[in-house]
Design a protein that fits this description.
With 500 residues, this protein is α/β, with parallel strands linked by helices. The chain has 20 helices and 16 strands. The strands form five sheets. Strands 11-12-15-10-16 form a five-stranded parallel β-sheet.
């Protein structure tokens, strides 16, 4: 009878969950049992592990094998525990020195030929092991650089089960972590778009700049062809760069979704789901273990919803909570998960079903009312910036290029980060309602201006706070230390009634 214990991890949403793999080998009828809430992929590890061991010239113990995955109340999914099960089984059967994996985490999927394959979410898995006290981790060779992004950990990349066994026996030396793949610096797709291509649309351009600088949610409404989508697609070209912590968060989500790009994320995400997307696809969910949705993929970046009025009303209303709290909470028995959802929402819409809007609109009152009901008042109230877009004139000249606007945005973001250095938030749009009065103060003239805006626009409490936040961003973009009355009035004008 022999027992071996190896540390590993499984993925729950975008977070890693440390797992202890316990393998017990005893005399009795040959058998292989896995306990501890394994899914189908984990239960099927028997055949992968057996074939990998035999292909690597190792023995398969013809005894009773019991594998416990602790904690037993957490569901385990995927094939990332294969390698941990294999080395624990080899240690329990006497083919590896006892205690050779003390304090070592093991991650990887096994091929039938003994090869060690990549595992989705490696960054989160390794981070979870590091938090649990592991200081050395064995990972697939292709995931070596990704694992090394977690600091204060020794990473041991391996490409084959036989190679790992030789290293643990001291018969071979550990390989080095390969350098990340070189990236193509040439911009492609939306990254190649520039604001200099846009003519006119002065008010909408200003709103886009303020959205990038302060993180404010933006809604552009106008008839087809006026440039709403064209302008929105150029937002990534003026977004501020990611900080290291933000880049790590974005990379961890990309890794969990199988989209790791080979190195730490350099650009903010820009997600643009189609209007036929379901609610689980948009906010996350699923019948078994919930999966992140588009709002999580857009974390620290932008979620762009083109043709907002065509999305399902239930899906749009599901955005209200993450827009307010910047997190998604999903409960499915037996797990309750929390997904990050700190994003800026940018949306476009036609003013009515026919798209023309007044005075050319041919829709009757019933059609207009039904169309407007698709967008609930609480959702619209969460847009700090709401702008009616009209067609540019033929004589309008091209506006500023993205590099010029991005420089202003960068300076504005730096001012906000300095102002909120001792706070949990970094941008004006993130200031909670309870802190608006202290963190965004107004002088006498500006107070009179905001009272005037509140009376003219019949603003809610949330709307009034939104105008104040936007006014602060306007001041930051212009380099003004205090909010002036004209900033407040301009912020009020950028919160238009977009649906008649």
């Amino acid at each position: 009878m022999a027992l071996a214990i190896v540390r590993s991890a499984t993925l729950l949403g975008v977070e890693g969950q440390p797992i202890t793999v316990e393998v017990h080998v005893s005399n009795g009828l040959p058998g292989y049992t896995v306990v501890g809430l394994p899914d189908t992929a984990v239960r099927e590890s028997r055949d992968r592990v057996r074939a990998a061991c035999l292909s690597s010239g190792l023995e398969w113990a013809l005894k009773k094998v019991t594998i416990n995955l602790a904690p037993s109340g957490v569901r385990k999914s995927g094939a990332g525990l294969d390698l941990a099960v294999a080395v624990a089984l080899l240690e329990a059967s006497g083919q590896l020195p006892s205690g050779c994996l003390e304090g070592v985490g093991v991650l990887g999927e096994l091929g039938l030929d003994g090869s060690v394959r990549s595992v989705p979410g490696m960054l989160s898995l390794v981070a979870a092991l590091a938090d649990s006290g592991v200081r050395t981790v064995v990972v697939p060779r292709l995931d070596g650089y990704e694992a090394s992004l977690v600091r204060a950990l020794r990473v041991r990349p391996v490409g084959h089960l036989g190679e790992l066994v030789d290293c643990l026996k001291g018969e071979a030396t550990w390989g080095a972590v390969a350098a990340p793949a070189e990236r193509d610096d040439e911009p492609s797709g939306d990254e190649a778009l520039d604001l200099g291509d846009v003519r006119g649309l002065i008010t909408a351009r200003l709103a886009l700049e303020l959205s990038a600088a302060g993180g404010h949610h933006l809604l552009l409404v106008g008839p087809p062809g006026v440039g709403k989508t064209m302008l929105s697609r150029r937002l990534p070209s003026i977004l501020p760069p990611l900080t290291y912590d933000e880049a790590f968060e974005v990379t961890r989500i990309q890794s969990a979704m199988g989209d790791f790009m080979g190195s730490l994320a350099e650009r903010r995400p820009f997600r643009a789901p189609h209007h036929t997307a379901t609610t689980p696809a948009l906010v996350g969910g699923g019948s078994a273990i919930p999966r992140p949705g588009e709002v999580t993929r857009a974390h620290r970046g932008v979620l762009f919803l083109d043709e907002l009025g065509e999305f399902r009303p239930s899906s749009l209303d599901a955005l209200r909570q993450p827009l307010e709290e910047r997190v998604i909470r999903i409960a499915r028995h037996p797990v309750a998960l929390e997904f990050p959802a700190h994003f800026t929402l940018v949306a476009t819409s036609n003013p009515c079903p026919c798209g023309l809007g007044p005075p050319a609109c041919g829709c009757d009152d019933a059609k207009r009312a039904r169309y407007k009901r698709r967008l609930s008042a609480p959702l619209l109230d969460r847009f700090d910036l709401r702008v009616l877009v009209t067609s540019p004139e033929s004589r309008d000249a091209p506006g500023e290029v993205s590099s010029t606007v991005a420089e202003r945005v960068g300076h504005a973001v730096e001012r906000q980060q300095a102002r909120y250095a001792a706070r949990p938030w970094q941008r004006n749009a993130e200031v909670p309602a309870g802190a608006v009065a202290t963190d965004i103060p107004l002088n006498g003239d500006a107070i009179d201006a905001i009272l005037d805006v509140a009376e003219r626009c019949a603003l809610s409490g949330r709307g009034l706070s939104g105008v104040r936040r936007v006014a602060r961003t306007l001041a930051d973009v212009e380099g003004s230390p205090s909010i002036l009355p004209e900033h407040v009035l301009s912020a009020g004008e950028l919160r238009q009634e977009v649906f008649e």
